Amino acid sequence: MLDQIKGLHHVTSMADDARTNNHFFTHVLGLRRVKKTVNFDAPDVYHLYYGDEIGTPGTVMTYFPFPEMPRGRAGTGEVGTTVFSVPQGALDFWRDRLAALGVSGLREEEAFGEKRLNFAGPDGDGFALVEVRDDPRMPWTDGGIAEDHAIRGFHSVSMRLRDEGATAELLKFMGYEELDRKDGVTRLIVPGGNGASLVDIETMPNVNRAAQGAGSVHHVAFAVDDREKQLVVRKALMDTGYHVTPVIDRDYFWAIYFRTPGGVLFEVATNEPGFDRDEDVAHLGEALKLPQQHKHLRPILESHLQKLED
């Protein structure tokens, strides 16, 4: 069993409008845009990152906004819900705020002894806020949300699978332990994690596979400290029979990818070097940053990419 993985690193999803996406995460949820760059494989499409002040691993939601992309169809083989941590007693504030701002899909419930507020993103994305007592992570408060209400980072992701078995075994190999089972959901935790330490598996044997589109999670990334630990994880996964990509330089972290038995795309990403490698912390996410191979496209991209703010 591996012990290098410390929880979630980031979650990457798809959207159909960059401006709407940026407004939702920065103005509605109050997160900080920590990087404005482009998709490595499709440079005419943004890659936007939202999180805490510095984009700490375990706080970062990222998006590929493909203009006019059709909506995805929910189903199995995907991350169905991305869940954020908020302070104890904050859900009343969030229910009122999201309702006033016209956010859809609001539904309160309790799961695993935690109060939870479900809601939908602009593209029908599945989100929830969960009250967590004494989450020590410091929130970004310059987005207009006070500290006693603001999002701390990820709480968990919930994967919808037709059969949990092989994926649950994979997560246990990656260092997770089963914490609880309730109402068809298995909860796993990585001990000593980074706060974004939980993964839920919803078993749905009679549900069709998802079709990806706007509002779908493209992949979920797990955090390791550095490249050395990442290589240990890569070798262990390959020795177990997984087809893992070579290490890819994503400018702000190094990444490896592999497809899980349940169909979800996993990434293992390093905590280094971070989002301040090419911008001062005070100005993160302000300028368009381009990967080296796309820098020659700057004049074209700056005229083509949608303006995120007025």
From TrEMBL:
* Keyword Hydrolase tagged: no
Pfam entry (one): Glyoxalase
**Where does the record locate the signal sequence feature?**
none
Q: Which InterPro entries match?
A: Extradiol_RC_dioxygenase, Glyas_Bleomycin-R_OHBP_Dase, Glyas_Fos-R_dOase_dom, VOC_core
- Any idea which UniProt keywords this protein has? Plasmid
In this protein, which residues make up the domain named VOC?
A: 7-132, 153-271
Which protein is depicted?
A: Glyoxalase family protein
Task: Report the source organism.
Answer: Sinorhizobium sojae CCBAU 05684
